[in-house]
Amino acid sequence: MRAFIKSNMPKLERRIALFAAMVMAATCLTAPVFAQSISPTLLTEANKQKIELAVWRYAIDTPLLLETIDWFRDLAQNSQESAAIAELSRLEFMIAQLEMDKDRRVQRFERCITIADQAISLNPNDVRGLFWKAVAMGKMAEDSGIVNAFRMLRPMEKMLLKVVTLDEKYENAGAHRALGRMYHKLPGFPISFGSNQQALAHLRRAHELFPRDIITRAFYAEVLYDEGRKAEARRHADFVLAAPIDEEDALEFAEYVDIALGVVKKTSSSDIKLGNY
Fold first, then answer.
1. 183 and 241 housed in the same domain
2. Which pLDDT tens digit goes with each residue over 100-148?
């Protein structure tokens, strides 16, 4: 999953935030832990910006991500702040996505889940912990056999539905997106609980909340096509293929560009010529 998933702030605003985060990272990453410990929260604006920078650049700057994980793990070592521990789970999810070896990748996602469980044990309603545990389980399900995958699906659904109830906007409506994808890709009754109607409901809501989100538009296009709503599907797919994608996002978004391209090819008899997406 993450993916995890990017914010929709305007490009200029994002560049300003990136510059500020780079400055803070350069001046603060090596700061002693005790200097931060007096804060009532570990998720100060400065610390959040450093985390966001590492998450945004995770695919092209692995050393920064690893350095940020080490820094924040030390900072949160004795913390009872569920949101901070859940942010560490998020960072671990990012590094797990980069692991090419299947066994090591599963181990990293298991570590992500373990950390998320620590956050949830401190606060059962911690949105971050619930979300990153659920999406890590989803990634593990992709690498597991069908029996193990099916065993994880209902708990994932329960956690994602809870995230929707607590904060449906978290991670650009990430829980709606994940539920929509799950309901679309799972077989229906009696084998499993897949449902294109439920998928459409969640993806429609995600689109209402974040209409420019590329991942939502790609997933939505695919379900609409499968439901025979080809004109709508093509409109969303065209949006994905026309969207400018930053270098930092290219690896993560390649999967969603491929989904959109598949919809375009199925709804057009002409050759598709793409720019630099």
1. yes
2. 999 999 999 999 999 999 999 999 999 999 999 999 999 998 887 666 7
Q: What is the rounded distance in angstroms from the CA atom of residue 56 to the CA atom of residue 209?
A: 21
What whole-number percentage of the chain has pLDDT above 90? Answer: 73
Q: How big is the chain, counted in residues?
A: 277
Give CA–CA dist 14/31, Å, rounded.
25
- Closest by alpha carbon to 225, among 266, 253, 180, 258? 266
Distances from the Cα of 197 to the Cαs of 49, 200, 224, in angstroms?
38, 5, 10
Question: 176 and 72: one domain?
Answer: no
Indicate whether 54 and 112 sit together in one domain: yes
Which two structure tokens, joined as six digits, stand for 101?
């070896």
Report the CATH number at residue 228: 1.25.40.10
User: DSSP labels for 59-101?
Assistant: TT-HHHHHHHHHHHHHHTTT---HHHHHHHHHHHHHHHHH--S
Q: In the chain, what is the straight-line distance between the N-terminal and C-terminal CA atoms, in Å?
A: 20
- Tell me which H or E stretch contains 256: helix 247-266
Same domain, 135 and 174: no
Domain that holds residue 98: 1-167
What is the C-alpha to C-alpha distance for residues 90 and 114, in angstroms, rounded to an integer?
Answer: 12
Measured CA to CA, the distance from residue 199 to residue 178 in angstroms comes to 9
Q: Which two tokens stand for residue 75?
A: 């900072």
- Number of domain units in the chain: 2
In a shared domain, residues 112 and 224 = no
- d(CA 221, CA 232) in angstroms, rounded, equals 7
Each residue's pLDDT tens digit, 59-73: 999 999 999 999 999
d(CA 16, CA 186): 41
Residues 106 and 216 in one domain: no
